[in-house]
Design goal:
The structure holds two protein chains of two kinds. Chain A is mostly helical. Helices cover 72% and strands 0% of the residues of chain A. Classes of the chains: A mainly alpha, B mainly alpha.
């Protein structure tokens, strides 16, 4: 897509905004619609659109495949780790009140934030990894055949 | 409009058009969810259905071919199955309570409890998030694990095939 000047400029403008919006959806999920799943998908969309317009190599310089593969597991670990922390505090698995025992409501806030972060990280990782897997194979269809 | 889009998806032979129409279908269903006040679901549908999956379908198209080969089998049996299933589903909806009825099981089971308790127990204004991440934390952990497993599966399948083919290429270059 070397010749699509408008696409390249607009993409450069948009990618930052998309990532910002993903972070907003991620950390504002307590107050407005959204949460980890949606934020992860939007975050992945930012990388995917960058990959489509500038090529797979460019996006893999920013976000290498091995980092993505680590992120897949990291998200689940964050989520399950939050549960294990509450176990060590003497509460039930995934009972977030443990985080601030004197004020359980705040603990719930922190816990939700942590597990949503875990969800978001995993979903971003999976979406980008699947995109890399598909786009990394040599296409059989030439550009003009579309 | 949903029905028209669905029929278009079935009838069009060009797979590129089909991909675009399924994106439109997702976007329309997202609008439907907004109309039903399920903004969180609509958000997901718009992002996943209309955004990512269209890109992935296009990516798959680049690996295969652009057009469907018309099938030679008669469509009678699949059509019959679809109609019977559809009729059974519609028959099932007859027993369902009216939309928004206060006696519906969805309104009477645990949800009044969640709505009453979540504000002072969790203190999160978005009750959907409170239920998803706190009351049903186990379910969401399971969903995350499912997403993780699916990602690993795709990686194993697709990257594994590529590696094997690379090995074959190397073998060929060695023998030649």
């Amino acid at each position: 897509m070397r010749h699509h000047l408008i696409l390249r400029v607009i993409t450069k403008l948009l990618v930052g905004t998309i990532i910002l919006f993903a972070l907003y959806v991620q950390f504002h999920g307590d107050y407005s619609p959204g949460g980890g799943f949606q934020a992860g998908v939007i975050m992945a969309a930012a990388f995917i659109i960058y990959g489509i317009v500038f090529g797979l190599n460019k996006v893999q310089q920013v976000f290498p495949a091995w980092v993505v593969h680590k992120l897949l597991a990291l998200g689940v670990l964050i989520y399950a780790g939050t549960g294990v922390i509450s176990l060590f505090g003497g509460y039930a698995f995934l009972d977030y009140s443990v985080l601030t025992p004197e004020h359980p409501e705040h603990g719930q806030h922190w816990g939700i934030l942590a597990v949503e972060l875990g969800v978001g990280v995993t979903v971003t990782g999976v979406m980008v990894a699947v995109y890399y897997a598909f786009a990394g194979r040599p296409p059989r269809l030439g550009d003009e055949e579309w | 409009m949903l029905v028209v889009t669905a029929i278009a998806v079935v009838r069009i032979r060009s797979l590129f058009g089909v991909a675009m129409f399924s994106g439109m279908f997702s976007l329309l269903s997202a609008l439907l969810f907004v109309a039903l006040d399920a903004v969180d679901v609509a958000f997901t549908e718009a992002a996943v259905g209309a955004g990512i999956s269209t890109v992935l379908v296009l990516g798959t198209l680049a690996l295969t071919s652009r057009h469907v080969r018309p099938s030679k089998r008669s469509p009678a049996i699949p059509l019959f199955v679809v109609f019977v299933t559809g009729a059974a589903l519609i028959y099932g909806t007859l027993d369902m309570p009216n939309f928004g009825s206060p006696d519906a099981p969805a309104q009477t089971h645990v949800y009044p409890d969640y709505i009453a308790r979540s504000q002072h127990e969790i203190g999160v204004p978005n009750i959907v998030t409170a239920i998803l991440a706190s009351y049903r934390g186990y379910d969401t952990l399971g969903e995350t694990a499912v997403v993780f497993t699916a990602g690993i599966g795709v990686l194993l399948l697709i990257s594994g095939m590529r590696r094997r083919r690379d090995d074959d290429d190397e073998d060929e270059s060695r023998t030649s």
